[in-house]
Amino acid sequence: MDSIPDDSKSKYVFLGKSGLRVSNLCLGTMTFGEPAIPGWPGQLDEAGSHALINRYVEWGGNFIDTANIYGRGKSETIVGSWLAKQERDRFVVATKVRGTMDSTNPNAVGLSRRHIIDSVEQSLRRLQTDYVDLLQIHNWDDATPLEETLLTLNDLVRCGKVRYLGASNLVGWQLQKIIEVSKHMGLSNFISLQQQYSLVSRESEMDPFVVCQLNGLGVLPWSPLKGGLLTGKIERGQRPEGGRLGWCTKDETLNMESLPAWSAIDKDSYWTTLDVAQKIATSRGKSVAQVSLRWLLQKSVVSSVIIGATKMHQLDDNMGAANGWTLTEDEMKQLDDASTFDVPYPYKMAIGMARSRQNPWHPAGWL
């Protein structure tokens, strides 16, 4: 494989307002081991996963994201067998807790004290490490008092098993409540929000990202290429046949955020956005994927973008967005304008009124 010039390698950025520095592209590991959903194609075995991580490290990457629920622990196990051979303190490892780990055990789900502690202990064993750098709640849990969840997470930070806290897939009021309750109780701050974010999925700009911007949380976009849509491999009206996108679009009942049905993808607004991204990519000698990732990297609220790959050439192409070039202000505006989405009430009214009355000494936070 080609060597990588230093000026093309990943930049290191602060994760939110914390002192933790991570590479601006994070390696997501949902493709490692068994598929999250039976039949999902493109999973990597241990050897293939390790080779991918090694190449990612050659690109300067130091940030690896997994979750206990990925392959019911198989992803963490594969990351752990690789991590055991490395200098542990050179890497930032993130995992998550909340999902169902055993359908026969009513306590093996959620954000209760019991499940969080059990899950972290098991994650540490699978990852073959004494601590997790970033523990993220994978979603909200209505069944558990927030105070119970936050006190448990704080205890894990205090005893050194977890270094930093983050969240994933939250709406704005949930994230703000976490911030306020943590502050009121004198508990560890959350430093990040992992959220779906791309040129065709910008809805979180309306609320969750405003909370992040006003409170210093770094955003970690997942599905930045919308399952392959933003790679430019398919054209308007051309239903994908192969790969993950082709597999998941065959079944309309699988219309999940990470597994979009064709009816959720085949939209004029998406194709218009892709046309603009393709035009910019052609003029700059870059791929559509690189332009799509670069757009995210230049958003002020974003710390690091989570990429996933099953082939080495995909990883190399994605990592080519990390450094050495930027989109111009005009190119960013073209992409912003093309990917504009319908903003419902009351957000449209609130954003419009905020933008008409700006005070530089008191930023409103709207993106």
TrEMBL record:
Residue stretches making up the NADP-dependent oxidoreductase domain: 25-338
Gene Ontology terms, MF aspect: oxidoreductase activity
Xref: InterPro entries: AKR_Detox_Biosynth (IPR050523), NAD(P)_OxRdtase_dom_sf (IPR036812), NADP_OxRdtase_dom (IPR023210)
CDD domains associated with the record: AKR_AKR9C1
Keywords: Oxidoreductase
GO cellular component, one term: cytosol
Coiled-coil boundaries: none
Family per record: Belongs to the aldo/keto reductase family. Aldo/keto reductase 2 subfamily.
The protein's name: NADP-dependent oxidoreductase domain-containing protein
Organism encoding this protein: Littorina saxatilis
